[in-house]
Design brief:
Elements lengths: L7 H5 L13 H4 L3 E3 L11 E7 L21 E6 L2 E5 L21 E9 L3 E7 L6 E7 L44 E4 L11 E6 L3 E8 L4 E9 L5 E10 L5 E13 L3 E10 L2 E9 L4 E6 L11 E6 L4 E6 L5 E7 L5 E6 L7 E3 L4 E3 L3 E6 L2 H16 L13 E3 L1 H4 L5 H13 L4 E4 L29 H9 L3 E6 L3 E2 L4 H5 L19 E2 L7 H15 L2 E6 L14 H18 L4 E4 L17 E3 L6 H11 L8 E5 L13 H8 L3 E4 L8 H21 L3 E8 L2 E8 L2 E8 L20 E6 L10 H5 L4 E4 H6 L11 E9 L1
Helix pairs in contact: 5-6, 8-9, 10-11, 11-12
Length: 803
Amino acid sequence: MTAQDLPPAQIAGGGIDDVTGLGGERDDLIKRGTVDGATAASRAGSVMVFFFLIPTTVLNLACSPTSGPWAHCGKLIAFDANGLIGRGRSGNRYPTRYAGRLVGAAGELMAQFYVMHGRASSLVIEQADGAAPLWRYWGPRLAEGAVPEAALADTRPLPTFALDKDVALSVFPLIGEGWFAQSALLAHRAQADWAQAVTQSEVVVTAQTIRIRLADEVSELSVDIQLALDPETDVLTTSTKLTNTGAGAMDVQWLAAASLPLPPDTRRIHFYNGRHQAEFGPQVQELTRSLWRRENRRGLTSHDAPPTGFAETADGHVYAAHLAWSGNSVQQAEWLDDGRYLWQFGEWLAPGEVQLRPGETIETPELLATFSPGGRNGAMQNFHAAIRKRMSWPGGGMRPRPVQINTWEGFYFNHDTAGMKALADEAAAIGIERFVLDDGWFEGRKDDKAALGDWTPDRTKYPDGLGPLAAHVTGLGMEFGLWVEPEMINPDSSLARAHPDWILTGEGRPRLTGRNQMVLNLNAPGVTDYLYGVLSDLLRSLPISYLKWDHNREIVAGGPRAVYRRQVKATYGLMARLRADFPNVEIEACAAGGGRIDAGILQYTHRFWTSDSLDAVQRIAMQREFLRVFPPEVMGSHIGTAPAHSTRRRQSLDFRAGVALAGHFGVELDPMKLDAKDKGRLAEWIGTHKALRDRLHSGRVWLGEAGDGAVWQAHGEARDLILLLYRVEPTAQRHMPLVRLPMLEDGAYTVTRIDQTRTNHIAPFIEAMPAGVEVSGAWLKQSGLTMPTIAAETLAIFRLVTK
C-alpha cells in the first residue's frame, strides 16, 4: 500500500499521537518506497522499511540543529507491511535515532533502510536519491528495529586521492559510477554506452521480498533485482534481469546474478575441484587484498568447478552461496577499500554469446545464498531446507526413495531379454524396488562408438522390444526405469546420417568427439521436437516411471555464435515439457557421474548420480561434500562391485553398503554372481536401509570428524538421530576417540548400535550397545560418545533417542 492508502486508525494507533498535518503529505514521506502485503513487522521474514527524516512542522516536533550540517534530534519513522507503526520516542516501539545530513527546512527524506529478517540472519540495504541501494549489512540476525545510525555517506570521511563523492558497495555496482572493483555489468552498444551508471531507482517491498528497479537513461537500459529471504530456511534467493531499452543492440559480456557483501573478518573461501570419478574435491583459498576468481567454461556444471562457495569468518560464521545453473559460471571475491569483500556469482559468457536487441531481456540464474552462525553444518542445513522446498515431486510430495538396481557395472552393453529377466528375478528376491536398464538397450549399441540418437530397442538383444522385460519387471512388483542420453549423438548413427546439420560443431573446424560422441544442437530447428517425440513414444508405450538422463561429454565451441546458455535453456525446456506431459515420471540427472549437479536442473529432476566411482573410501569424501549443498535423498549412492571398477580397490560388502546407506540407496552389481552368504548380507542391508530411510531422508544432517582417521555424520533431529561412524584409515591410537555431538539436548538418551558388524576387543559398555545403553545428552555434547574399536574401512551405526 502507498502512504495515501494508510488508514487513519493505523496512524493514530501507531504511537504517533503528536504527528499532525500528514494528510496528503504522507505520500511525500514515503515517496521512495512502496509497501504492500500483510505480514506483521515483528515476524521473522518481514521487511521493515525505515526512514530518517529531518523534523519539521509536518511532524510538529521541536528541534534545534547544531552548528554545521547536522541535526541532533532526528526521529526514526518505521513502516511495515501494514503501514506506519511507530516513531522513535521514549516508551514507543523504536528508540530515538539521529538524523543524517540536514538538507533543508522542508523535511526532506535523508535515508531509507530496508530490513529483512530470517531465522538467524538479517540484511539491510539503504536507498538514497536516485542511486542503486547500498549494502549496509548481511549477517547475524539483528534485534527488531536495529538500523544504521545514519546514512552511509554521513559516516565515511572522504579519503585522500579519491573522488569527491563517496562510492560504496551497492546491490548493482557499475563502472560508470566511479566504482573501481568488479562491476555487476560489462556491456556495450557498438563500442559505446559501456560505462553505465544508475540514474533512476525504485524499490518495491512485500512481506519477504525486495524488488529493485534500476535504470540508466544515458546508456538506455534497465535492471530488475529480486531479493527474497525465506524466514524458515534463512536462504536468500536473488536474481538479476537486464533489459535493453535503447534503439541499438547491446552486447553483454558479464551480468552478475548477485553482488553480495562479505564482512571484513572473512578469512577464506571453501570451494571444489575434481574430475570424472573424483568429484567434490575440497579446496580452500585464503582471502587477501586481491581478487580471487573461479571460472567454469565446460558448457555444463562440470566435475571440476561447480558454482558453490563457503566463505568463513574469523569467528566461524559461514556465508554460503550456490548458483542454480547447469552451464558455465563465474565466482569471484574481491577486497574492497572499506575492508569488506565483494562476492559475485553469474554465468561465464563467451564472446558474442549474448546480444540484446531493442526491448530484449536477459535474466540470470537464481543464486541461493545463506548466512549461518552455526558454521558449515548450519549453512548445509539451510540449503537442504531450501532445496527441498524448491523441488517438484510427482504427486506433490516425496515418497520413500525406492531401492534400485542399475544394470551398468554388472552388465555394461551385454544385454538380452533372458539375462535381464533373470536379473529382475534376483533383484526382486532381495528387496529391490526399482529396476533401471542402463546403456546398451537401443539399436546397434554394442559399445560406446555408435548408435546414440537412435532411440529404438535393439531387435537383436530384444526381438520383441522392451515390452516383455518391462512387463516382467513390473509383474514382480518393481518399477521400471530406462537410461537415455538425449543431448548426444554418435557420428556413426542413423540420426547423424539423416541430420548432420543437427550436430553442434564449429564451422570449418574438425569435429571434436568425446567418448566417441558429439553434442546435438538443441537450438537447431526440429531437434527438441524430435527428442520429445522419441522420448514420449517410449514413455507412452512402456510402463516407465524413471529416466536416468545422462550427458557424457563436455561442450566445446560450436556454430557461428556461442550457444552455451541457450543449450542449457533448451535442456530445461525439454525436461519441463516431458514433466508436464508425464508428471508421474521421475528423472535422474547424470553427467558421467557428477558433472551436472546443481539446483537449476534439480527443479526438473529428482536425483543426482554423484559419481561414476563406487570405491567406498573415495565415495565417503565425495558424498560428504555433496551433502554440503544437497539433501541425502537426492544423492545417488550404490553398492558397487569388489574390486571397484574405477580404482580396482577392494572393500567388504558391509563397508560398501554402509557408505551407500544414507543416500538414495541402490545396487550396481550382478547379485547372481554373489555367494549365498553375501547375497543374504545384501538383502539384510536393503532391509536396514528401508527401516531407516524415513529418518535418513528427513530432518537435518551434521558432518563431523572424530580424528584418528574416523569421520561421522548424523541424520534426523536432536531428539532422534541416526549416527554413522566411518573409519577410513587405520588407527594410530590405542583407543578410539570420543565423538562429541553438540546438537543433542541435555537429557538422557538411549544409544543403540544397529549395524550387524562385530569386532574384537569389546568392552562391557560397547557390548551392551546393541540392546541400548542410557547416556546423558549433556555428557555427549561436551565429552562425547565412546566408540567401538573398528578397523580401517569398517563402520558402526547408532540410533540416539531421547528418553
